[in-house]
Amino acid sequence: MNREILVACIGNIFLGDDAFGPEMAKRLVGTPLPEEITVRDFGIRSYDLAYALMRDWDLVILLDALPGGGRPGTLYAFEPELPAENEMPSPDAHTMSPVAVLQLVHALGGKVGRLLVVGCEPESVEPNKNGEIGLSAPVKGAQEEGVHLVHDLIANARSHALAA
Q1: Is the CB of residue 118 less than 8 Å from the CB of residue 153?
Q2: Which of the 8 DSSP states describes residue 17?
Q3: Per-residue pLDDT for 92 more than 60?
Q4: Looking at the predicted structure, is the pLDDT value of residue 1 above 50?
Q5: Angle formed by the axes of helices 46-53 and 98-107, to 10°?
Q6: Beta-carbon neighbour count of residue 14 at 10 Å?
Q7: Domain range list for the chain
Q8: 117, 77 in Cβ contact below 8 A?
Q9: Which residue from 40, 53, 95, 147 has the fewest beta carbons nearer than 10 Å?
Q10: What is the CA radius of gyration of the chain?
């Protein structure tokens, strides 16, 4: 392993709170991070994300809007159980489905290592009525906590890597 961590931020900036990932990328690049941490805004570019996942990352942290039934702005962090290769949907170049991206990685002969997901409960993933781009107040308010959460996950992963 190369002890490098990818923070992959995904989402569509034109669909309200679906912009959580890209907005978090802006926040995270403005914070002090060790040089082996890469923060990238993939937007809805599933193929770019798939090719980035082909690298031998020690850890990938995926940031996205994630409806989980909680109040808008609620943050979730977990290590998902990756589906079997034959259970994954086909990738689509025009949308961002993390599961389909994982299928594409497998189809390209790659393997995704350890993956953590940080999600934020959206209020709405519809186009903003006034045509403006931006997050709802609850999701915008969760960003600072999200930055701390990502920093904590990185620190935890690095301390475990150093102990191994």
Answers
A1: yes
A2: G
A3: no
A4: no
A5: 50
A6: 14
A7: 5-163
A8: yes
A9: 95
A10: 15
